[in-house]
């Protein structure tokens, strides 16, 4: 596995090439068998879709095929001469369903066969959905390498018969554009690399206390909280990112983290702060606070079409609520203490999100504090340690595992071995409860990284988790 | 300047955007005047060549124009509506010479005007050569920024009248693919960034004692000295890199560093080593050594068309020559000491390079040891300190300045201020002698960097030197 990881890193970050005599696939498919014959990839290898129900009107497969071909050349000039035999001329892709709207739980299974006989000789991919076919193309690409003798792309150890399906429907990576702004191009690069590792959810932690980089048309002064005039995303940028991700089989999960982690909101609308001198959490006493949340989620719902939205809810320090007179008064009038207010804030925000069609994900503090009050469909996002997931699923909630000691990428001392060995189902023995663990997520918090080193910090450890 | 550098860094590495109300050009053109009017760049801005002698058959200008347009959007979606006035619809480029073979000393001067009146309103570039026009397009791009209100590319402070020409004909950056292999894609990325800063020579230190990554058809076992099977460049890769660079106005200077820094050569041909146990410098006593040098330079001459080749000559530890019996005997028979042998090796290599049509560049130790014997056309490449350049030009040789204390990028403690303040003409007062300083070069030696951090280590300090 060390070798596989090293090679994967080479692919992702350094762009080097798989050595000719190794067989390395990552993540390892569910079932792999192979032979011993070398094949040559025809220089102008083509893609066909004979037998498909799917029409590829959006050019999802066609573009993915071209990206795969570009990737396996690794910028080398392929100027060898096609030999007369053992030449793979085509990849035929059979997709059984016409739909290509990416959604949670989409069937990503595939079969990939690379035979050694046939005239013409072609590889065959079979998948229920176009998103399974995308995964198959990633696997096919990993079989190929540029050979410095033939000056051709070659493929060793054919015939191959590979059957694959993901273990979990949610395989996430968090990026954080609030602590450091990440240009659109960098985010797209992260999405490219996620696709190589078959990760399928980009958790976009868009805003936080430090900055509010995204445009919210309903409340246009919110992005006054951006770091600078230019460190911003327009709604069109967000749509562009979502479309880019979807074409690669990657869902985008948007997060607004309330009521804590939201100080930047008040730069544009200072009444969201408890006071000028005490600026977070968001003012629980004002309807305006929830109107703004409603505006954000309304705008989000037009562009972030993933089933889930993430509402945060972690690390809420409520001291400003008790030291600000008008909030203190409001708490008294409503016979609430700050714990009640925190709970009500989260639940009220959940209702708003549900009204916009979302299922909710919340960080685990919400479950730890008032799990029995959460909307039953809430997905609890673990991060503090590995003990909570069994409790979450025992309570009937779904869970995403991101225990920080193993899967926080900003923990530079978290080893790739630790990333690999982390088991999302640890301590969960009941099969039905196991199914409530929808997957895991590695988290690249942005305090210590920026555009210049985000990829180098994410990989290869994120890939180790992807192999879990 | 700090601001200019910060913005340049943003452009190069982070890809952020120039703030709307600043005027920042880098390197600063020779002459700049401007007004106060804002213009909008038409969304489908076009390029024309009315009045040009140049035909752009190789699509040098057309591709550069498209790259410039892509760059100024910084991946934002430009979805604003073109206003009815103050819209720049076209950049007209007048190139006065039909030739587009890049060569040393090519005229890179240009005039760029951006008027505020005219129907249609268009910017005008005028240049002697296509390479001057490329520089003008870089400057034009730096005037433009994405505006988050109009959702258009805008250009402030028009009208602009800019006249520019480089101070030096040689503005170099060294990369080193022997200490760490750099994938072709990474090298192309470095070339892209050089073009943004108007650097025009990529000094490719291809091989060294650690590895020999490039294919030499005349002696095909030389690349047995590569780090691995895949960490290699084919001749086609090298041609691809040279063409890529030339299309961006960047020359590629190839180096083989002899007789020291060549231990890797012997992996494929061990008789190039003095002995199995004493492996460098190259064996001065064998004709085969010079046959291999001839083979390499013969192959180089087919692909590296720059006027110069770099023959190294630095840091030669000759102890293996005196401790290896057959070389010791050869020295005696030829009545030479090791200093004589070092001199003869360098001069014999120079003659071979000249026979293949090259002018030679050598590191300064050759000048320091036997400057009066060097071919008169030798360009002496300074690196040890700032004192040698005056001596070199006083002796009538040309010089490139790279004093390591200021312009070695692997010196992480060398500040950008130091890069900026370094003066290639320091201590040279005679005008004719000043003209012998053909320029400067910043050096990104590869021991401590690889593909993952080369760009981050080169910039922004290299840009500071480019502003010199």
From TrEMBL, chains A, B:
InterPro entries found in the cross-reference section: Beta_hexosaminidase_sua/sub, GH, Glyco_hydro_20_cat, Hex-like_dom2, HEX_eukaryotic_N
Protein name: beta-N-acetylhexosaminidase
Listed GO biological process terms: carbohydrate metabolic process; glycosaminoglycan metabolic process
Positions of the catalytic residues: 315 (proton donor)
Protein species of origin: Miscanthus lutarioriparius
Family: Belongs to the glycosyl hydrolase 20 family.
CC terms in the record's Gene Ontology section: membrane
One example GO MF annotation: beta-N-acetylhexosaminidase activity
């Amino acid at each position: 596995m060390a070798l596989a990881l090293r090679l994967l890193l080479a692919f992702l970050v350094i762009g080097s090439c798989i050595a000719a005599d190794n067989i390395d696939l990552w993540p390892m498919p569910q079932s792999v068998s192979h032979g011993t014959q070398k094949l040559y990839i025809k220089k102008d290898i083509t893609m066909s879709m004979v037998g498909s129900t799917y029409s590829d009107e959006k050019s999802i497969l066609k573009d993915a095929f071209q990206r795969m071909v570009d990737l396996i050349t690794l910028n080398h000039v392929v100027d060898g001469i096609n030999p007369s035999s053992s030449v793979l001329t085509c990849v035929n892709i059979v997709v059984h369903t016409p739909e290509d709207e990416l959604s949670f739980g989409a069937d990503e299974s595939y079969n990939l066969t690379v035979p050694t006989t046939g005239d013409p000789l072609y590889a065959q991919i079979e998948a229920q959905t176009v998103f399974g076919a995308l995964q198959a193309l990633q696997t096919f690409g990993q079989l190929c390498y540029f050979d410095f003798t033939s000056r051709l792309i070659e493929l060793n150890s054919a015939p191959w018969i590979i059957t694959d399906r993901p273990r979990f429907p949610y395989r996430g990576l968090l990026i954080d554009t609030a602590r450091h702004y990440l240009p659109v191009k960098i985010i797209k690069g992260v999405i490219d690399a996620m696709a190589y590792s078959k990760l399928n959810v980009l958790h976009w932690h868009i805003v936080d206390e430090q900055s509010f980089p995204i445009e919210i048309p309903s409340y246009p002064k919110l992005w006054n909280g951006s770091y600078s005039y230019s460190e911003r995303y327009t709604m069109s940028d967000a749509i562009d990112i979502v479309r880019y991700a979807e074409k690669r089989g990657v869902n985008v999960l948007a997060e607004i983290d309330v009521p804590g982690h939201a100080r930047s909101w008040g730069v544009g609308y200072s009444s969201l702060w408890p006071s000028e001198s005490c600026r977070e959490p968001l003012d629980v006493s004002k309807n305006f606070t929830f109107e703004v949340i409603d505006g954000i989620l309304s705008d989000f719902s037009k562009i972030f079409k993933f089933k889930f939205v993430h509402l945060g809810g972690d690390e809420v320090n409520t001291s400003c609520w008790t030291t600000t007179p008008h909030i203190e008064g409001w708490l008294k009038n409503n016979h609430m203490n700050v714990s009640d207010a925190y709970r009500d804030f989260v639940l009220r925000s959940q209702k708003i999100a549900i009204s916009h069609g979302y299922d909710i994900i919340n960080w685990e503090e919400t479950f730890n504090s008032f799990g029995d009050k959460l909307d039953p469909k809430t997905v609890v996002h673990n991060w503090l340690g590995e003990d909570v997931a069994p409790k979450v699923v025992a309570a009937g909630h779904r869970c995403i595992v991101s225990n920080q000691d193993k899967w926080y990428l900003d923990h530079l001392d978290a080893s790739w071995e630790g990333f690999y060995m982390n088991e999302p189902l640890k301590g969960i023995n009941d099969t039905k409860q196991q199914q409530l663990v929808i997957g895991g997520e590695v988290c690249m918090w942005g305090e210590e990284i920026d555009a210049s080193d985000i990829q180098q910090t994410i990989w290869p450890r994120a890939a180790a988790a992807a192999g879990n």
